[in-house]
């Protein structure tokens, strides 16, 4: 089968997928008007986030920043605040930078070609293809994990999806199936089928519009695809914080632009030695990031002198906040959970 792919006609598969999409598409708010700005925000929200969890965040974000102009005019801090709860905050920082690019490099008009969309900060090949195909009818497959899974099963294709060449391989395969007409519907059909029917486990093949064409289904080999050999390398990392409080106030500082949790707020990572006597409690929380298992020790130091508290904040450039003020900032989830549990 694999050797004859280039010569065979698989377009009927793509046509079945787009036909299925016409009547089965998920009703999603960004699909109502297919504006590039809305599609872009939805795609960035949905990276690493399921539709169910991302929907409310998307609506809140779009309500506050309805067009690229409002996003461009907002402060980075406010954009981060509206990203709160979604994690992977570098996505929000990049959205904000890209809004500046749209205004400064494209005269405020969202770019309307795949190659130009790809120039935007934080926009990869998948997102650029999704926007270009859905909004501008450009024939580019939006290849992501859904494509890998669905196409590898349809063709019983054992190409290793952890290989650096997988993207190109499945893009070529997608182009064999993708019709010239309605490229956006084709891409969205695979997004929907991948999410709801051709699921990683227990796919609902009985409801799949291409089950007659699917070699893995026809030969009972679905569990063999996609093939993935390499596992993500995860390392351990220990962090130590001091939750320095005076009555209902505590100290925070914004992180820099390097390493994890870029631009988010955190607690002090050290205190004067003679403040160790103020430590009233110590707690360790575990938190998983994609490539790191974090063990975070948080020591609560309750300071009884307002003067010492304020001098320390001033000397080391910390902001003094209460919980209401902290709610206006974005923290890494384990730190946010911690201060919410204290007050
Ligand atoms: S028939 Fe089953 S395995 Fe094949 S594409 Fe459809 S849902 Fe996936």
TrEMBL record:
<dbReference type="GO" id="GO:0000701">
    <property type="term" value="F:purine-specific mismatch base pair DNA N-glycosylase activity"/>
</dbReference>
<dbReference type="GO" id="GO:0006298">
    <property type="term" value="P:mismatch repair"/>
</dbReference>
<dbReference type="InterPro" id="IPR011257">
    <property type="entry name" value="DNA_glycosylase"/>
</dbReference>
<dbReference type="GO" id="GO:0046872">
    <property type="term" value="F:metal ion binding"/>
</dbReference>
<dbReference type="InterPro" id="IPR005760">
    <property type="entry name" value="A/G_AdeGlyc_MutY"/>
</dbReference>
<keyword id="KW-0004">4Fe-4S</keyword>
<dbReference type="Pfam" id="PF00730">
    <property type="entry name" value="HhH-GPD"/>
</dbReference>
<comment type="function">
    <text>Adenine glycosylase active on G-A mispairs. MutY also corrects error-prone DNA synthesis past GO lesions which are due to the oxidatively damaged form of guanine: 7,8-dihydro-8-oxoguanine (8-oxo-dGTP).</text>
</comment>
<keyword id="KW-0378">Hydrolase</keyword>
<dbReference type="GO" id="GO:0034039">
    <property type="term" value="F:8-oxo-7,8-dihydroguanine DNA N-glycosylase activity"/>
</dbReference>
<keyword id="KW-0227">DNA damage</keyword>
<dbReference type="InterPro" id="IPR003265">
    <property type="entry name" value="HhH-GPD_domain"/>
</dbReference>
<dbReference type="InterPro" id="IPR023170">
    <property type="entry name" value="HhH_base_excis_C"/>
</dbReference>
<comment type="similarity">
    <text>Belongs to the Nth/MutY family.</text>
</comment>
<keyword id="KW-0326">Glycosidase</keyword>
<keyword id="KW-0408">Iron</keyword>
<keyword id="KW-0411">Iron-sulfur</keyword>
<keyword id="KW-0234">DNA repair</keyword>
<dbReference type="GO" id="GO:0035485">
    <property type="term" value="F:adenine/guanine mispair binding"/>
</dbReference>
<dbReference type="InterPro" id="IPR044298">
    <property type="entry name" value="MIG/MutY"/>
</dbReference>
<dbReference type="InterPro" id="IPR015797">
    <property type="entry name" value="NUDIX_hydrolase-like_dom_sf"/>
</dbReference>
<dbReference type="Pfam" id="PF14815">
    <property type="entry name" value="NUDIX_4"/>
</dbReference>
<feature type="domain" description="HhH-GPD">
    <location>
        <begin position="45"/>
        <end position="196"/>
    </location>
</feature>
<dbReference type="InterPro" id="IPR029119">
    <property type="entry name" value="MutY_C"/>
</dbReference>
<dbReference type="GO" id="GO:0032357">
    <property type="term" value="F:oxidized purine DNA binding"/>
</dbReference>
<keyword id="KW-0479">Metal-binding</keyword>
<protein>
    <recommendedName>
        <fullName>Adenine DNA glycosylase</fullName>
        <ecNumber>3.2.2.31</ecNumber>
    </recommendedName>
</protein>
<dbReference type="InterPro" id="IPR004035">
    <property type="entry name" value="Endouclease-III_FeS-bd_BS"/>
</dbReference>
<dbReference type="GO" id="GO:0006284">
    <property type="term" value="P:base-excision repair"/>
</dbReference>
<dbReference type="GO" id="GO:0051539">
    <property type="term" value="F:4 iron, 4 sulfur cluster binding"/>
</dbReference>
């Amino acid at each position: 089968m694999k050797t004859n792919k280039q010569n065979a006609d698989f377009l009927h598969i793509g046509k079945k997928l787009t036909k299925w999409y016409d009547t089965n598409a998920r009703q999603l708010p960004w699909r109502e008007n297919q504006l590039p700005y809305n599609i872009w925000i939805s795609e960035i929200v949905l990276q690493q986030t399921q539709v169910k969890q991302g929907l409310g965040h998307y609506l809140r974000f779009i309500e506050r920043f309805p067009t690229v102009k409002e996003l461009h005019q907002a402060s980075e801090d406010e954009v981060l605040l509206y990203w709160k709860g979604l994690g992977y905050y570098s996505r929000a920082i990049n959205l904000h930078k890209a809004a500046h690019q749209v205004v400064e490099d494209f005269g405020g008009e969202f770019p309307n070609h795949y190659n130009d969309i790809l120039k935007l900060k934080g926009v990869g090949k998948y997102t650029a293809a999704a926007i270009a195909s859905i909004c501008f009818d450009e024939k580019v497959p939006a290849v992501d994990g859904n494509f890998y899974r669905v196409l590898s099963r349809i063709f019983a294709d054992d190409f290793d999806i952890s290989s650096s060449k997988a993207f190109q391989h499945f893009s070529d395969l997608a182009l064999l199936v993708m019709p010239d007409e309605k490229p956006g519907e084709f891409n969205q059909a695979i997004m929907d089928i991948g999410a709801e029917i051709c699921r990683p486990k227990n796919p609902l093949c009985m409801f799949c519009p291409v089950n007659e064409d699917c070699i893995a289904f026809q030969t009972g080999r679905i569990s063999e695809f996609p093939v993935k050999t390499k596992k993500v390398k995860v390392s351990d990392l220990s962090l130590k914080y001091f939750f320095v409080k005076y009555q209902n106030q505590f100290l925070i500082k914004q992180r820099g632009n390097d390493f994890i949790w870029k631009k988010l707020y955190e607690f002090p990572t050290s205190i004067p030695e003679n403040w160790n006597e103020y430590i009233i409690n110590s707690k360790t929380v575990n938190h998983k990031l994609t490539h790191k298992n974090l063990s975070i020790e948080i020591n609560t130091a309750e300071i009884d002198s307002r003067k010492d508290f304020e001098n320390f904040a001033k000397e080391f450039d910390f902001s003094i906040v209460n919980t209401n003020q902290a709610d206006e900032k974005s923290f890494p989830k384990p730190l946010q959970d911690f201060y919410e549990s204290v007050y």
